[in-house]
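Hi R.,

Here's the chain you asked about this morning:
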Amino acid sequence: MRAAVVEAAAQAAVTELEPPEPGPEEVLVRLEGCGVCGSDVPLFEGRPWFEYPAEPGAPGHEGWGIVEKVGRAVTRPKAGTRVAALSYRAYAELDLAAADQVTPLPAAVDGIPFPGEALGCAVNVFRRSGVQAGQRVGVVGVGFLGALLVQLAARAGAEVVAVSRRPSALDVARRFGAADVMRLGEQDLEDCDRVIEAAGKQETIDAAARMTRTRGRLVIAGFHQDGPRTVDMQLWNWRGLDVVNAHERDPRVYVDAIREAARMVAEGELDPRPLFTHVFPLERIGEALASASKRPDGFMKALVVP
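And here is the predicted structure, written out as tokens:
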């Protein structure tokens, strides 16, 4: 089998290795593809705390494909089932996953790329946000996650205000149902019932807090992995904000959210397809990761396919 290896900062290649055998409670998935997550980018860009080379297939964790082989204790899913998997070496042709951490996909999503972990993340964040019809909801940062949250909030009957520094992202937000769009740094609202920060930057936390009304809810969905942040505690205190860290770490909750995302896509309640803007073969893994880092015009989500 082939797998990508991040060999050093800004260096990635493809290697060949023996396929793994599933343990008693594992399944082996032949991958159709894997989404490139923003949290994968720092490993490729380089940080002092990473060790290289990375494990083959890492840090790919948005894989989907067909179950090829199951462990001796596994009764579900059966070989041949199309699934989204919680696995962590999915920049490859094959990867292992715990049997209880794969989600069978309905026939209605056949042929649709399905980076399940990313779609499940959007569902989890939306659940934690407590968005209700009639509320004014800000989404700060309109990448893949932010765009999905705009779509979910708009379809729930909220009045959505989308904030991004990229004009192309604001165009997507409009198409996904945003009632208003604003450039980051130019917004002056402070009347949103819910504000979801979805970019993982100091600037976006600051902007999201300023947009949240007194007794509103500020939801942290961006992945802040590059060091400490500061917060305007005076503002948070004075407005009596509820602050929610919407990142989920329980695999059982994630699997449930992926299952719900699959249902929503199958029934037309969620449509991620316009967001799959860049597709790369496995041999171009370096370009895929670089595109997620540089975000060229029109970029929303990169997929890597074996």
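One quick note: The CA atoms of residues 29 and 153 lie 33 Å apart.

Cheers,
M.
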